[in-house]
Amino acid sequence: MNEKETNTSKAQVLNIRAAKAIVETVRSTLGPMGMDKMMVDGAGNVIVTNDGATILRELDVAHPGARMMVEISKTQETLCYDGTTTTVVLAGQLLSNSETLFEKGLHPNVICRGYHEASQMALDYLLSDINNSDSESLLHEVAKTAITGKAVETSTDMVSALCVDAVMAAGDVDKVRVISLPGGSIEESYLFNGVIVGKDFVLDYDSDEETNVMLINTGLEEEKSDENVQVQLDADSYTQFKQAGKKNLLEQAQQIVMKMNGKGIVFVRDSVHDHVCAFLRKNGIGVVRRVPESTMRALKSALGLSVAQTPEEAETSATCKVSRQKHNDVYYLFVSGDVDSDQSTLVLRGATQSTLDEVERGFDDALGVVSLVKGSGQSVAGGGSSFVAMAVHLRAHAASIGGRAQMAIEAFADALEIVPATIAENAGYDSLDTVLAIRNKIQNGDLSYGPDVTNGGVKDMWEAGVVEPTALIKQAVLSATEVTTSILRIDDIVSRRPVE
User: Fold this and answer.
1) According to the 3-state scheme, what is the secondary structure of 118-156?
2) Domain shared by 210 and 271, yes or no
3) 389, 372: one domain
4) Alpha-carbon span 8 to 491, nearest angstrom
5) Three-state SS across 12-30?
6) How does DSSP classify residue 194?
7) Cα R_g (the chain), whole angstroms
8) How many CB atoms lie within 10 A of CB 321?
């Protein structure tokens, strides 16, 4: 072997070894019996989680090959909200199997072509055997599958019901607002049909259940001129100049008082002058200032009001309910209206902030997968059964390809079975026996069998209520294949000049 071939082999081995190190970090978290990881930084801050995306995001990764594995986890989380550990574990097994193919004399490009062709064959088979349904009962099963093995598993039925109700009310996961309030237990979480504003009144204000509300997109303060102008004024003229701006603000405040009949709440996007706040409070109107733009849009939708630029253009609503609540020494305003709106807020409760963070991660995954199935109406049996079904299909058709690419396709099929094997292994059962039992069931036409993590052996995933979005499985196969082929095509690692 010449020096160039030695360098090439060394570069590929280093990249594969670094990628497999990432896989080993998260592999034990896969499945309903997966374990948690405790992550500690130099300052002593601690994160306890079994969410693969969170673990990989918080890792201090320096090797470029390992960073590629982290990137696919981010892609999987962005597109499918869940399945990050599955994607990384599958990619790691594809890389591991490619080392065996190297020893048999296959060129990296042949392996890449074989992997690509195998992924397309597998996905064609996957998409030909899917369940087209988005019934509410199926959405509950999808949510339960996503939260099994996470911190919220202790309240599976309640959490799945909240996730389904939130997505059904909002129509899409991106419209579901989530707020975490420390204190209490997860059983005290609930869905609030309205908007929760993480702000308090500028001055003390006793809000009624039924009150007027006004939304203003600008501020109520004196505008500062950008021009640098020098003017000489005597004492009287200076006093009149100073009072002119304040008079204009008070005129705007008076218009608010007249429109709201001396009672109500004003939500303002920017700052509000203290004199205006005091004037409005004296006339029975509460002020909430510096409200985020996203919250203003949510209030607009929930109350059926337009967000005005000035008090002259503003509308008021007399059918709004605003309550003020204190949680962990922080005040929140709970706002709801009588109009039909897709605005809902998921209120999460937890004993401590660290446990609450993990609860929120579990809810995010469940909300995402429920939204995927609701949007596409496509789902498959979970528990890794679909991966074994794709593997059996590939082995049956690999011989028709012929040539060395057939070996790569068979290696791809072997790698797909790592998902149910890892799930069984993390549950304490023999991975080989489990995979062989699933193969036997699938070859006999029972395509939905997967590992039984409770009693050992295998069972029907549809009957057990283990369901996953088709989009999640599809993206996991695509991402794992892409990162594997990208790493295998690298034949050398060279230094580059610093970025200027």
Assistant:
1) HHHHHHHHHHHCCEECCCHHHHHHHHHHHHCCCHHHHHH
2) yes
3) no
4) 5
5) HHHHHHHHHHHHHHHHHHC
6) S
7) 29
8) 16
Pairing label, strands 264-268, 210-216 = parallel
Q: Reply yes or no on whether the pLDDT at 358 is more than 60.
A: yes
Distance (Å, whole) CA 434 – CA 387: 13
Closest CA to 418 of 444, 391, 443: 391
Residue whose C-alpha is closest to residue 464's, from 454, 479, 473, 478:
454
Condensed to tens digits (0 to 9), the pLDDT of residues 2-36 reads 444 444 467 788 888 888 888 988 999 998 888 88
Q: Tell whether 228 and 334 lie within a shared domain.
A: yes
Q: What are phi and psi of 449, to 5 degrees?
A: -85, 140
The answer to whether 191 touches 345, Cβ cutoff 8 Å, is yes
Residues involved in catalysis: 51, 84-85, 365
| Phi, psi for residue 101 in degrees, rounded to 5 | -65, -35
Q: 386: which residues sit within 8 A by CB, 6+ positions away?
A: 126, 380, 468, 473
User: DSSP 3-state assignment of 468?
Assistant: strand
Rounded Cα gap, residues 166 and 158, in angstroms: 12
Q: What range does the domain containing 398 cover?
A: 3-132+379-488
pLDDT at 455 over 80: yes
CA distances to 192, 197, 326, 361, 368 from 179, rounded to whole Å, are 10, 10, 14, 12, 16
| 3-state SS assignment for residue 447 | coil
Under 8 Å between Cβ of 417 and 388: yes
Each residue's pLDDT tens digit, 370-398? 888 888 888 888 888 999 999 999 998 88
Same domain for 200 and 338: yes
Q: Residue 58 pLDDT > 90, yes or no?
A: no
Helices (H) and strands (E) in the chain, counts: 17, 16
DSSP 8-state symbol, 300: H
Tokens of 114: 């074989």
Last residue of a domain, one of 320, 342, 364: 342
Per-residue model confidence (pLDDT) at position 473: 92
Judgement on whether residues 42 and 117 belong to the same structural domain of the protein: yes
pTM score > 0.85 for this model? no
**Rounded Cα distance, 407 and 334, in Å:** 61
What mean pLDDT do residues 197-211 have? 80
Inside any domain, residue 499: no
